[in-house]
């Protein structure tokens, strides 16, 4: 191939990729001065929140009683500034033909929501303290609750969930989802911010856990890696599209334990104090105190070195 | 222990680790001027590709129609330079006794492959647009296709797969595998670049999904987290080693849905329009329109607080 | 809302979050000069260790025989300095009322442990070489053992495990756990550093694998993604808390293969040369040479577009 | 000293530093949403401008004729966004009691000024090309004009000056000064952005050069390191403060050369084609074609090893 | 040249550079656990100090009266930790054969000095406020004292000087010198930390200013770029080495102005209210109210295009 | 102004800036695979060289005799790789119409030069040790030679000079100039790499020093800040351009001291053991043992507050 061909072929592809019919369905148009949500800044926000909620574990804040308020003061103020902008970006994400007045109103709303959210932080910290306690008490391998806070991926995932859930309650679009996907990528635990989860919640190991948007989970619930609390089917509208917003995920009552890889689908109820064994496929409700396990395995004749 | 002992003991270990018999089986020798693939640069390449394919979502490119071609132009040119070097590094990875002429030929081949790959980008973008559409239509929790592109890990994993697949078609060694492992680490979704996957493909949640090298997946297929499309057994050669390159993974026909944690192994066919329930172990073919679920669970007597 | 309200409300929340009763159960107090473990530094340590064990794959060390000892020398010395401090931080993590003499003793112990650990590196490298060999031989998709070292997440996870295991043997607190969680986050593979694992160990794909603290795994064992080797129940003490330190995870003998998503719980033994099929729930021992698979699936009548 | 004293003494100092009477005269109050100029961003802006003006020298833009417009397009668009914000920050710097309407007007003005400035770039490039030519022709040590652009600090300083001067013409406060101080710190050359300087201007070596705010410099002027074109005295107002804005620096006509360390002060004129020798102290006008040097040195009796 | 020669020749040079006789006079031996001063950390320290002294100008601290104490609190605490370590490193810099007890004593001393220094900050801020005022009042080009703080290199240099001077008073070795060299590199202004300088001190432009170790400068002094207040000769000891610690630099009394490039050497006194013209060489004392300028220049016959 | 005007006006300016007649005289064309010199990499190279020459001062290399060779080994190997590429880039800088064969020859030449340069390092270290000694002995303010190496800008500038000089001797284009400009920017000391400078050379304070390309400086010479050793006039060729390569800078013989701001121009000789006073303008030779000072100042009647 002739070297002179290169620029020509590159140029041709660039032109093709720049045609509106090529990019129009996968392109996000944002207007000047209309901020985009930023994963990097949301990462900073989550770090700040972890630092505020669990003083002395993250960041470089020492925890002398004499100085803790300086650090919390600075972190809360930084949080206020960064989060306000991201919420504003979230509020603008799908506003394609806005005028200035409208943008200013969204900006004000973002400030108000941010403040409302910050006022929830003491309560979020309180809830997370129960989750830490549950993880520590329930895991014979845990040496201390400090180790739980410092190392356990479940605490990171549940922290992000509790933050994202509160933001969603305050009607922030998009941002809660990004925050929960950040925890999903970090821990393999995927909790939809719309799910409702009680106190003393714990997840062991956690990789592959999925908790759907309309789940309701009681207090003192423990689930293991690979557990799905999902939807079984979506009622379709007259155009054949799934109807949005219908309750379609399980209700898990207080004190339930669900073992690894169990899949529970649909608006079914797992009664209080039940134990669901691993790898079970469950699409019906079970009463309180149930103990469910998979049908017993069978023996089989295999062939081949690595085969089954 | 005497402090003077430290340098002596460190030195002894360093010498032991520097002996050829210690490192020879785990050491990669690369010659001067022979480039190594770089995860960091491949990360930049994937970012550039995401930015090119989905303008306005990643990076800082605004998407005024007037300026989009500048951004695509710069990104495609940067891509050409970075990817050419990585492909060259891939082509050199296992060439241990090369001469200069041979290296130059590989360099030329890398340039040619890079250009061929770039010319596929409009088509890759088109395919990914169908995947985005499928994810949006099929998920009642999705607010917009913008949210799908911005947040859904499946889109990231499928993007990396479609890139890596195209590179493998162009006979690039190693690099496609690294690109798919990057998505695997980020999303928990492990799609072998050699697999063949139709349009409107979607994965929900996705953590733990495995799609093997010789899989053939039709159009409009949807799979959930934890699904394995794997190999059941590997025919061995006369030395007892698995024979490489044999078709050993499932064929999944159009419009199939596979629920969470199902494991489908071997060169079996899942017929069109089938639905495979969660946690199923399937090692035989099923005809079109099949609806398969796990044998019903049983009740069991448990003991202990946290036991099963 | 009045703009003057903002500072007032922020201030009030800051004060609430700074009250001892709010933070006391989730706060880590560390004293001046008492170092905190650092994830960032532990990340550097793992990178150094990978670079030392697998020369030429990570970092920028070329592998001319003439110069390899310089690189190993520098990396081992850096490792000594960084690891010593992190082990010291680990030894101090829960020492809340120490005096200076006590801190100095911990510092000396940290130095001694670090040196003992470094002297194990040749042996760790030797074991990892067997794991690489097993992965290469057992995977028809692997092109070379170089590809295995460079790309396979299992090698990263097993490397971190073998490092963390050795540190735990040397009675280092906390640090081994952080190192294994780093691999967990990166690969989805969660191996407790206390588990005992033989040579030629391999994990395919790996996302969702969990190997518990008291597991004993023989030689030439291969497991697939989503496999759990976990605890079934925890004996409780008289206060209703799980008793810590009891053997509660499976024993897997030599040459066993366990397929995707199988869940094996409790102190059961999987006899040598057995094959456990995917998605099996196994809570009893099986003799050598067993071939276990899930009960056959059943057909079911589904409704709905996306339903099951 | 007792260890308990530390927190107490730190706290006391913190309180003292936080008292309004301590900080009021050295504190900058900026209101929420009122941006501060950022040295870091202004650094990026200068880099972008250098990259736009001198394609192929800075940044990573290749200069194939086919692709240069992509790079200039992207860089100009980035410049527009970044500079607009910094100019806005400059316009807000001293507005302590603004309302929203006022801020929006400043924002619009910033956008307008930025665009006006960008339209001057072709002319700025043209002027700088004459400066490069003058430096190359006038320096026997210069190998090529490429070397001049790539290495000569004077080109960096004059580039910043020509940018800052244009911004000042457009009535941007503060930002021009920061841009000229950036060059001052990098090169030791301190040109006030208000000075007026003709084409083909060149400075050799440059460290210590000072060119005051009301200087007027003709075409084809060359000055050496350490030259000061400064003010001799400042007329005072009735309160004894210097009156601002009066012409108080020299006029240097065409084709003048001024050698190292010469100090020329006051509103004097150095006539065309003059040469001013080094280390001269000049506070009066000199006619065209003047050749001025310092009074001849004298011999002196010194004592001591290192003495004079 | 044969390619095999390269490793051999590199190895030979490495061995030569590693011989003790080659490196002994230019090598710094530091013992394990003996910290080295770090330019990077000292840079952070200077940034913190600037942020504490001038709230709202540096860093990201807003300056709402309600929150300023949080920021000062956090910055002072960070300063305490970082500076303590650097002072400790300074105290250890030349201690080649120390024992542990000795190191601990230096560590305690470092903590004590750091605290003493921090208690001087209110006073340092007060002095710097006078310097800012002097620069603003004395420069017709200055728009506001905010511009002076934000842009003027002299303020940066004098800030570093006042910090370094205080540390030297507290007998910290090495660190003050590094801090003043940092300002020297940034601004071209070289003030020895041992010099004594009164309030309302200002330097205009500043590049090339040198103020020697034993200078005594009164109040309300203003000096211009290139001014040297240096030593004329050093009395030698009997071995011919300069005697250290002798007063050898000028005394400049109150209200003196010294113009650009003046060189004043030796223990001479410039009397109060004097004005020293530029480029003057002065090695004798002058009485109060003196007005000194260089001998008048002369005219000269030049030849050549660029010549003098 | 209408908002729709913005994109239009930006686009027009971009087009203007992208026209060949606009950029042609200030644009550097570099061909694909033709490397550009990189200031960032040259910065790393200088850091490596400082670390190799002065072990224990820069970087993180400890200096236990047992381990120093590892660090020097790694640093020299890194230097070989980085410097080879930069020299190659330098050799290609002005080769606009090269073919591949030509590029390969330049690459080989770069490797050979790099190796030749590295073999000079022991000698460069030896020379720099004499410079350190001279600075320590000659400065009453210096506490130790360690302080000199760690803090004195002159050592940094002279180190860069000695490196750049050696590279120029080996006929490397451009790179030596960039290295000396890096020191110029950092220290204000501008030594042309072509100058020839003997051992025990020292510069005090240094800001503003200029040493021209054809200077010859003997041993044991000391110069102060602001000293220029420059060219007086450039003979012109018949086209009126300065003739390049002619000896045009001073010769300074052994044991000379030159005080601050002295300007010595032209191919004159300052005889051995001479002392040149500050602010002198010297354009003729002076014999050995000369003591030269500026003509005595005069008194003058000034007016105005800040005037002269």
From TrEMBL, chains A, B, C, D, E, F:
Reactions listed under catalytic activity: L-serine + acetyl-CoA = O-acetyl-L-serine + CoA
EC category name: transferase
Residues spanning the signal sequence: none
Domain of life according to the entry: Bacteria
GO molecular function per UniProt: serine O-acetyltransferase activity
Gene3D superfamilies xrefs: Hexapeptide repeat proteins (2.160.10.10), serine acetyltransferase, domain 1 (1.10.3130.10)
GO biological process: amino acid biosynthetic process
EC number: 2.3.1.30
Pfam families the record matches: Hexapep
Keyword set, alphabetical order: Acyltransferase, Amino-acid biosynthesis, Transferase
Family the UniProt entry places it in: Belongs to the transferase hexapeptide repeat family.
PANTHER family the UniProt entry points to: SERINE ACETYLTRANSFERASE
UniProt name for this protein: serine O-acetyltransferase
């Amino acid at each position: 191939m002739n070297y002179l061909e290169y620029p020509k072929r590159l140029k041709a592809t660039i032109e093709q990729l720049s045609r509106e019919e090529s990019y129009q369905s996968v392109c996000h148009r944002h207007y000047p001065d209309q901020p985009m949500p930023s994963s990097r800044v949301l990462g900073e926000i989550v770090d700040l929140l972890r630092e505020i909620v669990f003083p002395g574990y993250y960041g470089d804040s020492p925890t002398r009683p004499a100085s803790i308020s300086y650090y919390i003061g600075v972190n809360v103020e930084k949080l206020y500034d960064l989060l306000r902008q991201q919420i504003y970006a979230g509020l603008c994400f799908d506003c394609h033909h806005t005028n200035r007045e409208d943008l200013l109103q969204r900006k004000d709303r973002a400030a108000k929501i941010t403040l409302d959210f910050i006022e929830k932080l003491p309560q979020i910290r309180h809830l997370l303290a129960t989750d830490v306690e549950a993880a520590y008490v329930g895991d014979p391998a845990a040496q201390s609750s400090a180790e739980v806070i410092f190392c356990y991926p479940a605490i990171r995932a549940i922290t992000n969930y509790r933050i994202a859930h509160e933001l969603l309650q305050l009607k922030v679009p998009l941002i809660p989802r990004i925050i929960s996907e950040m925890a999903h990528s970090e821990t393999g635990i995927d909790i939809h911010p719309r799910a409702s989860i009680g106190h003393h919640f714990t997840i062991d190991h956690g990789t592959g856990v999925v908790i759907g948007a309309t789940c309701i989970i009681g207090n003192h619930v423990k689930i293991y890696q690979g557990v799905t609390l999902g939807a079984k089917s979506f009622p379709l509208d007259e155009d054949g599209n799934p109807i949005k917003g219908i309750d379609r995920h399980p209700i898990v009552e207080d004190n339930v334990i669900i073992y690894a890889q169990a899949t529970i689908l649909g608006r079914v109820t797992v009664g209080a104090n039940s134990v669901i064994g691993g790898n079970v496929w469950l699409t019906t409700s079970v009463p309180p105190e149930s103990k469910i396990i998979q049908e017993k395995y069978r023996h089989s004749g295999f062939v081949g070195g690595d085969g089954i």
